[in-house]
Amino acid sequence: MARRYDSKTTIFSPEGRLYQVEYAMEAISHAGTCLGIMAEDGVLLAAEKRNVHKLLDDSVLNEKIYRLSNNISCTVAGITSDANVLINHLRWWAANYRLRFGEEMPVEQLVQELCNEKQRFTQRGGKRPFGVSLLYAGWDKHYGYQLYQSDPSGNYTGWKATCIGNNHAAAVSLLKQEYKEQSLEDAKKLAIKVLWKTLDVKLASEKIEMAVLKRKDGKTVLEELTDKELETLIAEHEKKEKEAETMAEKMPTPSDQTELAFLRLLERTKKLCDNVETNAHKIQAAAGQLEALLNKMHELNKAESNELVQYTRELNQLRIISQVAMQKSAENKLQQIERIPKLFPLLNGGGKETEEKEEEIGEQLQSSNEIKLKNKTIYEQELRDELFHRIHQDKKEIKHDEMQEQMANELLSLTRSLKENMKVAGNVIKDDNQRLVRMQQQVDSNEERLSAESVRLARHAYKCGFDCMLVFIVFFIFISFIWMVLVMKIFPKVSDWRKSTCQQSLRPQYRCLTHIHMGMRTGNYNVFFEFTVVIPVIKNLCLEDNLSNINALSPFVLMLAVLYSVILELATSPTSQVLHERNHFKDRYTEEQKLLDYILFNYEKAVRPVKNSSSTVVVKLGMTLTNLFDMDERNQVLTINVWLDQWNPADFNNIKSIRIPCDLIWLPDIVLYNSADDYTTGYMKSRAMLDFDGTVFWPPPTQLRSTCKVDVTLFPFDYQKCSLKFGSWTYHGFQLDITNRSNNIDLSMFVQSGEFDLVKVYQKRKVTRYTCCPGKCI
Fold first, then answer.
1. Which segment of 118-122, 265-269, 271-275, 365-369 scores lowest on mean pLDDT?
2. 150 has pLDDT over 90
3. Which residues cross the membrane (predicted)?
4. Beta-carbon neighbour count of residue 446 at 10 Å?
5. Does residue 664 share a domain with residue 565?
6. How many domains does the chain have?
7. The CATH number of the domain where 170 resides is what?
8. What sections of 585-697 are H helices per DSSP?
9. Domain-located, residue 312
10. Which domain holds residue 707?
11. Strands (DSSP E) along 693-762, which ranges?
């Protein structure tokens, strides 16, 4: 017979495992329970005492918690003789460090020294690993309070709370739920609670040992709890347990439905164990669901019960059975199934509630121990068949490979369906995004039309009011002139002396009136009106013979004539109408409406915003990449979604920032030269922001499709380089100077694509001269 793989420490099994190390861990799992909890003001260590007998001498009884140095202590689980050897090593290293350097050895450094020694015993022939695991509690000036745990392989880890020894899995599960940042007093209560739930015997002061490591008067001290203090803690916990049981009897447990679901699934999983070779992967999947239900029951109960501990043990055993079934050789299966621990019965004594729940699901649960024995018999028979060559090993391996292939095909089909679902979901999301973009465009277009129509109606209403006022004034002047004519007809004719007086007195006035001007200043506009209509009126009044009654030409009549000419000139002058409209709405418009009307007055958006035609408009172009939509390898087209940032300097002094529709102002005709779409699609309409210093900020969101040379030789590990070339379509570089807004592309809003990874993105400015056109093109 060939040599067994686990007979030597340094020889690996075909599965790559060191069984001697695993055997050492198995020995630790059967030792007494030890736990450590780190608190805010210290570290607690607790250990289970076994083989306590009344005839034993307490003075020579080995303790479970050891002091290693002035600042480090530990507790052990495993073979006592191995523990004594390691304790002596630890104490010697700590004393040697203190003697050489004059200070206490750091906690982690001491743990490393011991783990190195453990590791050496797993690498040399003729030696075996130490069958002991240690929990270290210490304090140093660098890291404060610390808690470490090391295993026979030489590995160590730091913990906030952990457990080693018997039933360590259940204890760690309970610590996960109950642990929080707490004081040493709360840590003592938590340790009693964990030991109460996990120990296989009734908890008593003579069966446990507990100590706390803390700082006192500038020194690290290790204080062991007396039997009286332990009895007090145990009595308090018993009282709480009784109160909890009383409350549970009065109130229905909210986890009943979850527990029934767990039991039903556990029953179906155990039925799969009848053919564990074929259903191994199904058992593992069911174990994951069982774990989720078990966690839910832990959350609902808020405390560890005996039933939950039993459920945890059965779940762990089912997992181990499924893992054993996936081994290739019968020898390995038999070795592993022998190491499965026997399940303990429920500790509540009565079991009445469990029996009622079993009746609800139809039949009594199959015992996990029976499953273990059944599979053990099967594996023993397989081993005998292999030894006597009844079953060829190649057939077993072929059967195992077929099972693996079947599982791989199932996983592949699931992966394909997931990929198809993701593709369908991506198409749906893409369609929804396009629909939302179209709706947003329609909303913006309707908003702009409604705004323009509102402004037009408001101006029309103001103009109508002004026209009504003019009609009223004209009507008043007409009535005044009729009254003047009537007055002239009633009074008698004047003498020739008065005629000469009229001629002498009115001619200077006539000459003066010919030079009458009216000046008006509104805002930045100077408007002058010259009234020439009144001249022939006065001339006719003074020279005609039939109007000799000069008394009728009083200063009041002269004022009416001048007023008539002024109103007539204002009514017929286009400039006056504009000035009236600009001044009339100021009392009714908002600040932004006034600012918009001021900016767009006599503004022509078809020409560049420069005073001198030889001046250059500087445009700062930037890009914010949001995502890569698509890469069409066949047509070599890249589709991305970006925001374009363009800055146009303009001259509007002393004006605050305002956001207006972009089609009201001049915009640069920047296009994508290598676009894969029609240029007539244009950019998405958006609002532009005008700053007080004349700067225009226009960020239109758009989706760009550009041509891109694609090389798929190395697919799916290919790298593709695509360029987006922007520039003005009609302006040359002396008219429109395009510069980079920043050195890098903005990727703050970028969403990674599921098909491509963005490796690098950058931008640069390039000046090109064409023979067809003067000037440089950018």
1. 365-369
2. yes
3. 469-491
4. 10
5. no
6. 4
7. 3.60.20.10
8. 591-600
9. yes
10. 607-777
11. 695-698, 701-707, 726-728, 736-740
